[in-house]
Design a protein that fits this description.
Layout lengths: L2 E2 L2 E2 H39 L6 H30 L8 E3 L5 H14 L6 E5 L5 E3 L25 H4 L6 E5 H6 L2 H12 L2 H4 L2 H22 L4 H40 L4 H31 L2 E3 L2 H15 L22 H16 L11 E3 L4 H23 L18 H9 L16 H4 L52 E2 L5 E2 L31 H8 L4 H21 L40 H20 L3 E5 L3 E6 L2 E2 L4 H10 L3 H10 L11
Parallel strand pairs: 4-6, 7-8
Antiparallel strand pairs: 1-2, 3-4, 5-6, 9-10, 11-12, 12-13
């Protein structure tokens, strides 16, 4: 779009749409006042002797009562819209004294763009950057006089630009650690340019109205117990949704105009560098996602949270650059000054962001405690990888005890009853006595569900399948009792926190809602929150679980069902690791600003990383853990950390070949041949007992 008289066309379009939103508000007010106006006319007509008679008297009373009820309802809705707290993204505030150079860079960028500087800077554990308005209407600045007949634009004097408090600049923490200073400035240019439209009184008023309606819908959706409150919430929700539907198209076009105006204004600042920097944005997305899902998630499940996630993303992206021939030039950038140097204490900020990431993506507690402690990268292999493998292997043998599987496997020395890999292999490869049982694994009775360690089931036969036991009564073997059950994920309650903007061909971030100044989900989404999904380790839906285990053997299906049930029970004991705790600043270095509270702890994790694991995946992971334990205890293998793939098994300092196909062959077909060949090649002895936690 081209400029008209120094004003971007996008800004003019945004203001036009903002006025349309405000007209919806005015019409709603007019509708609320219409019965009152009719009552005034009837009352005045009666007092002047024009509208007299019994019929007019009845009509006067009816209309007056109706007008009073409508005014009370409208006042209640307006009060809720004005006072309801809008949704706010959880972030870590960066005070100016802890990052003076970063603030100086952002203000210099705002001066070059001729827009107001952001009021504050905050970090989010995500690969995105946006503007967020955190000024509650009750604490907004006083109104200023302005000429409604003119067309004030983004380049007006500072008096007009400062009529509305500038929003907060939220920066993705991976950008600070991976990008260089110049690249970060180029990427932030179109974001900072959005403070200009945010300062326009009409656009700011329209956004406040939209956020208030969205917050009112959230209040109405919360519901109440007593009938009167439920009726009031139903009415509030209906009115708020109706107004949101009326404003939705205008609000969307307004945000598009704001984004277009910001992108156009930012073209004059570091345009060429911004195109190059967008390549780093895409790389950061890939590395950050792999770091969270492959590296951080296993630690969170063990009750540990990596305290240097942003340092880890640099290592992961460097490794990705080394492996990918298309990214060979990226590693040479590491000689330039990283953007995290703009922080006075990057380590403290990284720790705070890492704790917040664990809270958002996993649902962990808001502070360190005995069952939720930080872990450094140097301790990750021993504290997370080794412990998680041995914990999973212990759970596998405990479920085998529950199923009544004998402890001695083929080739095991007499008198040996310790946990061995041979026991697992023999159980999964023993032919099924009844092939038809694979279609529907039989249930386990109370007498068979929890046999004593080292004994068979009450019937004297080894069961071929089982449903989830009713209770966890099994007494684990002392040698491998799982005393340190990991803290598993809490319920997956999907809830969008921040919309992501996708870079266009020119390198500008074009988001569906412009500069992200409005932190709420798409308008009206609070009215119908997504249903909670099954937890990461919990039992999935019956039909999905049956489909997943349909191709496995009967014993594999029974073992998977037992492991899923055991994980569900452990999670029930541990859950919720973070729910019910009061909101508090995310960690050291967090400010005391508005992001220290005002977000709901009951809906954690807000951004779940992965869907629930299926029974097949759970069984595969446990068998893999048992194989790794056998390798560590018999051939001297060691746990390791791969920055892109997570836990790794190291032999003589080198990563072993992938054993996933061999394990899948055992799980799906009951064929141990590929896995035995893999172990024979490395010298792993499955008949030797292994050490478990």
């Amino acid at each position: 779009m081209t400029a008209l008289g120094g004003v971007e066309m996008g800004a003019l379009a945004a203001r036009t749409r903002a006025l349309a939103v405000l007209r919806v508000r005015s019409r709603a007010l007019a509708v609320a006042l219409l019965p009152a106006a009719a009552a005034v006319i009837l009352l005045v007509g009666g007092s002047t002797g024009h509208l007299v008679g019994g019929g007019w008297d009845v009509l006067r009373w009816v209309v007056s009562v109706l007008a009073l009820l409508v005014l009370l309802a409208a006042a209640g809705v307006a009060l809720v819209v004005a006072r309801a707290e809008p949704a706010m993204t959880p972030t870590v505030t960066v005070p100016e004294e802890s990052a003076p150079e970063l603030y100086r860079m952002v203000r210099d960028l705002a001066d070059r763009l001729d827009v107001p500087a952001p009021s504050a800077i905050a970090l989010t554990p995500d690969c995105d950057s946006w503007l967020e308005d955190r000024t509650h209407p009750l604490h907004g600045p006083p109104p200023v006089d302005r000429d409604d007949d003119g067309l004030p634009g983004l380049g007006d004097p500072a008096r007009r630009r400062s009529a509305v408090a500038a929003p907060v600049l939220v920066i993705g923490s991976p950008f600070l650690w991976w990008m260089r200073v110049g690249e970060l400035r180029a990427v932030l240019a179109p974001v900072v340019a959005g403070t200009g439209p945010s300062a326009h009184p009409d656009i700011a008023a329209a956004r406040r109205f939209i956020r208030g309606l969205d917050a009112a819908v959230a209040v109405a959706s919360a519901g109440r117990r007593d009938p009167l409150s439920r009726a009031a919430c139903a009415g509030l929700g209906w009115v708020s949704r109706l107004l949101l539907r009326s404003c939705r198209r205008h609000a969307t076009e307004m945000e598009r105009g704001v984004a277009a105006a910001a992108a156009e204004r930012a073209q004059a600042v570091d345009y060429g560098l911004r195109i190059v920097a967008q390549e780093q944005v895409g790389l950061a997305y890939a590395g950050w996602d792999r770091l969270l899902t492959r590296v951080a998630l296993p630690a969170w499940r063990m009750g540990r949270w990596p305290s240097r996630l942003d340092v880890g993303v640099v290592a992961a992206l460097t490794e990705l650059s080394r492996r990918d021939r298309l990214a060979e030039g990226f590693a040479s950038r590491l000689g330039e000054r990283p953007a995290c140097d703009l922080l006075e204490e990057p380590g403290v900020v990284d720790e705070a962001v890492s704790l917040l990431a664990a809270r958002l993506f996993h649902g962990g507690p808001a502070e360190t405690r005995p069952d939720w402690s930080p872990v450094g990268w140097e301790d990750y292999p021993e504290e997370v990888v080794d412990r998680s493998w041995r914990t999973d292997a212990a759970r596998l043998h405990r479920v085998l005890d529950t199923l009544g599987v004998r402890r001695t496997g083929a080739g095991t020395a007499p008198g040996t009853d310790g946990p061995t890999l041979a026991r697992v292999l023999d159980h999964l490869t023993t032919p099924d006595p009844d092939p038809a049982s694979a279609l529907a694994p039989p249930t386990v009775t109370d007498a068979d569900a929890d046999p004593a360690p080292g004994t068979h089931s009450a019937s004297g036969t080894t069961p071929t399948g089982a449903q989830a036991p009713h209770a966890d009564h099994a007494t684990p073997h002392p040698a491998y009792a799982d005393h340190d059950a990991p803290a598993n994920d809490s319920d997956d309650l999907a809830g969008p926190v921040a919309r992501r903007g996708a870079p266009d061909a020119s390198g500008d971030v074009q988001a569906p809602h412009g500069d992200h100044a409005a932190p709420h989900p798409p308008y009206g989404d609070h009215a119908a929150p997504p249903p909670p999904r099954a937890d990461h380790h919990g039992t999935p839906a019956d039909d999905e679980d049956d489909d997943d285990l349909a191709g496995t053997t009967a014993r594999g299906a029974a073992l998977a069902a037992g492991l899923s049930a055991q994980l569900a029970r452990e999670e029930a004991r541990e859950r919720p690791v973070g729910a019910g705790l009061p909101s508090s600043p995310p960690g050291p270095g967090a400010g005391t600003g508005p992001d220290a509270a005002l977000w709901d702890d009951r809906a954690l994790p807000l951004l779940p990383l992965q869907p629930p694991r299926t029974g097949r995946e759970i069984l595969t992971a446990h068998i893999t853990a048992m194989v790794c334990c056998a390798a560590m205890d018999t051939v001297g293998a060691a746990p390791g950390l791969d920055w892109l793939d997570g836990p790794a098994l190291l032999l003589d300092g080198a990563r072993t070949a992938d054993l996933a196909p061999s394990v899948l062959s055992l799980v799906e077909t009951g064929d141990p041949g590929p896995l035995r060949a893999w172990m024979t090649e490395l010298g792993i002895r499955p008949e030797k007992p292994v050490r478990l936690v």
